[in-house]
Amino acid sequence: MPATPAPEVIHRPDERFDEFLLAAAATHPDHPAVVEYTDGAERVTTFRGLRETAERYAGQLDRFGLEIGERVMIVSDTSAEAVALVLACASRGLPFVPVSPETPAERRATIERLAEPALCLAADGEPETAVGHGRFGGGAIEVPRPPSRRARSRRAVTPTDTAYIIFTSGTTGRPKGVVMSHRAVVAFYRGMMAEGFVSVGDRVASTSPLQFDFSLLDIGMALGSGAAVAPVPRALLRWPTRFLKVLSVTRATHVNGVPSIWRQSLRHIPGRLADLPDLRGVLFCGEEFPLAELRHLQRLRPGIRLINCYGATESMAASFAEVPDPLPADVTHLSIGNGHRGTDILLLDAEGSPVEEEGVVGEMYLRSPALMTGYWGDADATDAALVADPLEPRSGQRLLRTGDLAFRGADGGLRFCGRRDSQVQIRGNRVEPAEVQRRLSAHSAVCEAAVVVSEGLDGEAELCAFVVLTDGAADTAESDLRAFCLRAMPAYMAPGVVRIVDSLPVNQHGKTDHRRLLAELLTDA
Ligand SMILES: Nc1ncnc2c1ncn2[C@@H]1O[C@H](COS(=O)(=O)NC(=O)C[C@H](N)c2cccc(Br)c2)[C@@H](O)[C@H]1O
Fold first, then answer.
1. Within 6 Å (CB) of ligand 1, which residues are found?
2. Would you say residue 425 has pLDDT above 90?
């Protein structure tokens, strides 16, 4: 008798963000929705419990008489309480603005000045005195000085209303607020569900801060499928033994995160990675996963499902691509696929014409119902990112101009190969630093590499490489690494400076922090 398939979660068309995430409460009320790790044990919140707490928070929010569209800033990491508050805000049409508790005060003040939230609620911390500031916990919201009541002119929440605003660092250093509607987020979630990564009863470990939309992917991937999200406490993430202990205690079947979350475990306790009996899938995004590390992970976990998820906050993500198991030795770029179901990634040249030939680099443009509404309060930046369809400008359809470069592989799948604005001219030749970084990462003695561009003594752009060696390769010299590059690329692409360092800095999202590397160069100059 074949095992009866797990009952499906029932989704209705045009669900609000919260309705999508709580759909499983109707069919699987007693299944785990959030599995938290506290003091060495798991604490489970079921879908019924999550829905009840969300309803309590929604009732608390009603007391303030806010207008649909008024923002609620939430200062918290991912937790059952924070997810419940997010659901409550979405049910009332109040865009939530997630901010990490470790966000520097000045940046938080900037985001607050830009977003002008009606409420600013922290999971814990000192009692607030400013108007609208307060705390949330246990289904209750306390705001010592509530905001003035609003005149309410909107009657109902519509799918094109804003579900959340995520502030990412813009190239100018001024945070850009990415405005995402209910319709866009749910369209992305449906595209992701079509990939069938997780099912009822699974547990998705989430390793990104709530302010990073990757955490919202994790929450949607889990709850939308009737599975549980298992937030990994930020403080434990940086200790490999504790990180793996959390995965073991919460019985994580999937782990989502940027590539750097695996680095220390792969380097120092690879054997322990083999010990996690429930783990069967890893989804990564945000930057390229160094291939040597990826192959190491595959050797330790034969049969594990590795998903390369590509995308920008402006569309949550754009594509999912399975990593071949094992990854063939001659592969130099991972596929990012061609866009998840319901999207289409166009590859266009500088003139806006389609690039058809294999191996030719173009810029990716994304056609998708999951595109952002725009950047908060920045119409010019919005118009630069959401452009008329270059293939049919008359349609009025807007595409996301990603700023990302790619080429098509032999299998038709796209290969990411850097950002348009990171290209440099060196001695008259166009160079993509990511290409040099990939070459250095392919050296057997290298376990991490990053390449930044600085100004050389002659005022020319110069490639500077920072390299972390594998434990057994301490005697590898910078000259060996430069020679390794020269064997595969023209001289102008070989880094002028090669620094061997103990580790690479990562930003608050866990991505290699190129800005900090540049700053180190300038201070040493
Ligand atoms: N898989 C890859 N290979 C290589 N380069 C990648 C990948 N995914 C991104 N990137 C780069 O990161 C940029 C975007 O940065 S971002 O806006 O901070 N957002 C992010 O990184 C995270 C991004 N929102 C995301 C990705 C997946 C799921 C979710 Br949910 C969210 C992209 O434009 C790319 O340049």
1. 168, 213-214, 216-217, 285-288, 308-313, 316-317, 336, 402, 404, 416, 419
2. no
Cα 191–161–59 angle (5° rounding)? 105
| Nearest CA owner, ligand 1 atom 5 | 287
The residue ranking higher by pLDDT, 431 or 319, is 319
Tokens 């290699």 belong to 512
| d(CA 1, ligand 1 centre) in Å | 44
Ligand 1 atom with the smallest distance to the CA of 178 is 17
DSSP 392: -
Q: Residue 305, SS3?
A: strand
Position in ligand 1 atom list of the atom nearest CA 284: 1
Measured from the CA of 218, which atom of ligand 1 is nearest? 30
CA–CA gap between residue 221 and residue 404 (Å, rounded): 25
Q: Which helix (H) or strand (E) element contains residue 141?
A: strand 140-142
Pocket test for ligand 1, best of 310, 319, 335 (most atoms within 8 A of CB): 310
Q: What is the CA radius of gyration of the chain?
A: 23
Q: What distance in angstroms lies between residue 60's CA and the mean position of ligand 1's atoms? A: 35
Nearest CA, atom 32, ligand 1: 312
pTM: 0.92
pLDDT given at position 299: 95
Burial class for 263, CB neighbours closer than 10 Å (0-12, 13-18, 19+)? buried
Distances (CA, A) of 96 to 91, 377, 382: 11, 16, 20
Which amino acid is it at 115?
A
Query: What distance in angstroms lies between residue 286's CA and the mean position of ligand 1's atoms?
Result: 4
Is there a contact between 400 and 366 (Cβ–Cβ < 8 Å)? yes
The pLDDT, as a whole number, for residue 495 is 95
Interval between CA 303 and ligand 1 midpoint (Å)? 25
Q: What is the pLDDT of residue 525?
A: 59
Average pLDDT along the chain? 94
Which ligand 1 atom sits closest to the C-alpha of 168?
18
Alpha carbon of 284 to ligand 1 centroid (Å): 9
Structure tokens that stand for 348 in this block: 């266009």
- pLDDT for the residue numbered 172: 65
pLDDT digits (tens, 9 = 90+) for 152-204: 999 999 999 999 999 997 666 678 999 999 999 999 999 999 999 999 999 99
Burial class of residue 350 in the structure, from the number of CB atoms within 10 Å of its CB (0-12 exposed, 13-18 middle, 19+ buried): exposed
Query: What pLDDT, in 10s, does the model give residues 436-445?
Result: 999 999 999 9
pLDDT at residue 2 tops 70: no
Mean pLDDT of 347-362: 96
ipTM > 0.90, yes or no: yes
Q: Is the pLDDT of residue 8 over 90?
A: no
| Residues in CB range of 483: below 8 A, 6 or more apart | none
Interval between CA 215 and ligand 1 midpoint (Å): 13
Place of tokens 């108007």: 131
Sign of CA dihedral 120, 124, 129, 134: positive
Ligand 1 center to residue 258 CA distance, Å?
9
